Amino acid sequence: MRAVLIRDLRLAMRAGGGFGLGLAFFLIVVVLVPFAVGPRADLHRVIAPGILWLGALLACLLSLDRVFALDYEDGSLDLLATAPLPLEALVSLKALAHWLTTGLPLVLAAPFLAVLLTLPPPGYAPLLLSLAVGTPALSVIGTFGAALTVGVKRGGLLLSLLVLPLYVPTLIFGAEAARRGAEGLDYTAPLAMLAGITCGTIALLPFASAAVVRVNLR
Amino acid sequence: MASLWEYANPRKFIATSDRVLPWIGALALICLVLGLVWGFFFTPEDYRQGASVKIIYLHVPAALMAINAWLMMLVASLIWIVRRHHVSALAARAAAPVGAVMTVIALVTGALWGQPIWGTWWVWDPRLTSFLILLLFYLGYIALWAAIENDDTAADLTSVLCLVGSVFALLSRYAVLFWNQGLHQGASLSLDKQENVDDVFYLPLLVCIAGFVLLFVALVLLRTQTEIRARRMRALLARERMG
Q1: A13: closest CA of chain B, how far (Å)
Q2: Which of A63-72, A172-181, A207-216, B29-38 has the lowest mean pLDDT?
Q3: Chain B environment of A193 (Cβ under 8 Å)
Q4: Which of A52, A211, B155, B177 sits at a 20 to 30 Å CA gap from A78?
């Protein structure tokens, strides 16, 4: 299991910068927003949590089609599927690798980008917390979407369409927690809901993803 | 004892549905014409909403069918996963565009009604937002069917998507409720007599709902038949090419 994880991480780092791409996209979104809405600090302060969450979500979406695509094309997914490792564990590892290369860097970079959007200081902890709790759900749900579309040529856009409605609850609770935190309100309720979603998706979705991978390899 | 599963045989399905389809279609037409004419021309105007209340005869049945079409797809997907009857998968596929159109009708009529009554075309209200998400689910489902060439693979994948999507649709519903308390009024139809709209509006509304249900059944049967025949034709053509 560890070998698969390490292999995935190494692949992500070497093949076109897995860390770099998502982070760069996150940076682009955050930098472009003030140009789009005008240089009003009061406005930025209000929309900062939402923009940061949206940027993280889009950056996740951007890197999803690489979760299975490379392995599917060169046939190593077939080999991995016939390995003694259960397919459910394999897709979980893939999701974990995706989170380590995309989600975790986004969480760590968020406070620095929050400075650009003049997020009020009490908002940092809830923002970090909500992203840390929520991004694993994004990776797990996204892995399911990637597994669905692995057999489709140029499935990137289709993947986004499929995953978009599945991301709605995570986005609502995550951004709500960050927003309430930034306004100095109590944010335990949305954070608990977000944690519930993350735990639920981690517990259930690998089975759906594995079933879908099996169909696609048939 | 004849079993329900006999209708999973495409030949039997086509024979039976051919026999009932004209009746269902005619009944749907009668109900729709009766209900809509009755509703639009022979009911009084609401004392506060005026004539705009009449959009209820399109809006409520369409919204009901939008949700029930997804439920039907969920059941059909489960049957496909468990028993692998091809007609079931095809029926789910046939229902999706009909459900998507119903969702669009509900959204558009809602917007047309909301403009004079609420003073806005769209608000980010839980019910409205849930319907928008439902529409996205329909679009994704249809797109996935269209994107995969092998029919059985497509049926398997869309069935799993339908199951996962149903869970997330429920989740979204409660997430959106949490996120924003709405502008949309409560139910105007329920088994609880107290909550119902007045009988003057209620009876034509019931006829309209019956019409929409029948229309949905007729369309799904027709589309399923078409799909079965298209598959047969593809099989025959393929056999011909093989020589």
Answers
A1: 30
A2: A63-72
A3: 175, 178
A4: B155
Count other Cβ atoms within 10 Å, centred on residue B119. 8
Q: Contacts of residue B165 in chain A, CB cutoff 8 Å?
A: 165-166
Nearest by CB: A158 against B136, B143, B178: B143
For the stretch A105-139, pLDDT in tens is: 899 888 888 888 888 888 888 999 999 999 999 99
pTM value? 0.88
The verdict on B172 touching A (C-beta cutoff 8 Å) is: yes
Burial annotation B76-92 (CB, 10 A radius, 16+ → b, else e): bbbbbbeeebbbbbbbb
- A199–B contact, CB cutoff 8 A: no
Q: Is the sign of the CA dihedral A107, A111, A112, A116 positive or negative?
A: positive
Query: For the segment B5-34, what is each residue's pLDDT rounded down to a tens digit?
Result: 777 788 888 888 888 999 999 999 999 999
Other CB atoms closer than 10 Å to residue A121's CB: what's the count? 8
ipTM higher than threshold 0.90? no
Distance from CA of B30 to the nearest CA of A (A): 37
